Amino acid sequence: MSFSLVPGFAQRYPKDDEEHPSPIPDDRHSRHSRLDRESAPDRTSLLFETCCTTLEQARAAQSRGSNRIELCVDLPIGGVTPPHDLIREVVAQLSIPVNVLIRPSVMPGSDRASGFSARDFVYDEAQLQRMIEDIGYCRAVGAAGVVIGALTPEGAIDLPAMRRLIATARGGTGSRPLTVTFHRAFDVCAEDPFTALDKIIALGCNRLLSSGQAPTAWDGRNLLNLLVRRAGRRLIVMPGSGVTPDNLSALAAATRASEFHGTRIP
After folding, report:
1. Looking at residue 96, which CATH number applies to its domain?
2. Are 67 and 96 in contact (CB under 8 A)?
3. Structural domain of residue 138, as residue ranges?
């Protein structure tokens, strides 16, 4: 699926120029890089969330050592809410936590062929009501959390919509709250990424799934590193998009993240 970068991203957060290093080594930079490698997170300490669309995929991911499942369907358009019977079956048959993507299956005015853009996360009242119902169902069948995100027509974090969705996820007094992950709507948000991050933290979200506002997490590793540092212990920044066993160690070292999301990990 295609991806619409936030305008100006490449200028604000350029990638490291790895193919053309400086011809004059900088000893201070070399020492810094060596220390980064030496202090890179131990792979055994990382948490892996596997994106799955079927019960069979979820079972296989659990058997490979996945720590958590994100359940959705229709991945070519970025994933939408799975059917209720699939949610129930996966939650019932797995022993690891299952987070469920809550995103309406129909996006009025959205051109699916164009892929991923901010307008795909702008919801009307009917869609919000359906999302609230789906979150309630997830709580009822024992899901661990939900994965949500909403933007205004201008591309900002939709705070009123998010508050309604989160209130449903948290539930009433005495009920078991669901964890909340803000998904990759963040990656097409028109706001400054640090302003958007602060809003997501203030909403009470537990986690942010992001590619660093780039097509892949590796491309967005510089911004992801800054987001991890800014969030600190207040929220988990979880890189996703293009994460594989081959680039995982380098991505962990570059971003300092401790949780990773993908269809091909662990």
Report:
1. 3.20.20.380
2. yes
3. 46-262
